[in-house]
Amino acid sequence: MPLLIASPSVMHIEKIDAGEKVNVLLTLAYNPFGFMTQTGGATMITYGPVPLLISIVYKDASGTIKRFNNTVTVIVEPFIDLLIRDVSAIGKQSSTTISGVIVNLGSATAYRVRAIFNIGNASAWTLIGDIASADEMAFRIEVSEKEEIGTLTIEYYDAFNQQFSKEMAVKVEMQPETPIVPPQERGLGVETLIVVGAVTVFLAIAFVLICRVLRDRSVNKVEPE
């Protein structure tokens, strides 16, 4: 299966006069499912130098059909397309937390991907890592600042160590602060007072009975025989 597809694949030129120069515009479409056959089998190629075979067929003045082939090397550059989705920024108290998912829709790996969030005078970042083609990774950043609008920047490198970045404005959803209500001191209820009163009466009666028993025993001990 070809890696590059020519469009159109066949072009017809009616006549080229002697000494005449004709420029031909050819569009090449990248085929992500294409491969090149090399020694030992088929190797999947996503970018790099790709040989393109061009065949020229023509008739000379005598009407003889002639043909010759020419090979042209086409450089296919890596294709990285990062999509940022499910972005959510929440501001509470004196900080802002942003989270989201980065998807690589390209044909090459995005290396050393980093997410940077700037809001107000504060900035924070996190290293996400390498994101392969058709892969996705989540991120989360917390900044010690709270504003209504922030800027999210995604930085990454391609296979040739070239740096790229893309930015987007993010609206922060403010969450109202929940006031801390101190626990209220609850007074004694009617049931509690009844229980306390009953226990007090019981202890008082028990104390009186114990005192009487002890007094009777002491009187019996002191009586003469």
Shape: rod-shaped
The CATH architecture of the largest domain = Sandwich
| CATH superfamily annotation of the largest domain | Immunoglobulins
Order of helices and strands: EEEEEEEEEEEEEEH
Radius of gyration, rounded? 43 Å
What separation lies between the terminal Cα atoms? 131 Å
Low-confidence stretches: none
Helix proportion of residues, in percent? 10-25%
The CATH topology label of the largest domain is Immunoglobulin-like
- The oligomeric state is single chain
How many domains make up the coordinates?
A: 2
Task: Report the sheet with the most strands, covering strand number, pairing sense and barrel closure.
Answer: 4 strands, mixed
Class of the largest domain, according to the CATH hierarchy?
Answer: Mainly Beta
Structural class of the helices, strands and pairings?
mainly beta
What number is the mean pLDDT? 84
Number of helices: 1
The counted number of beta strands is 14
Proportion of residues in β-strands? over 45%
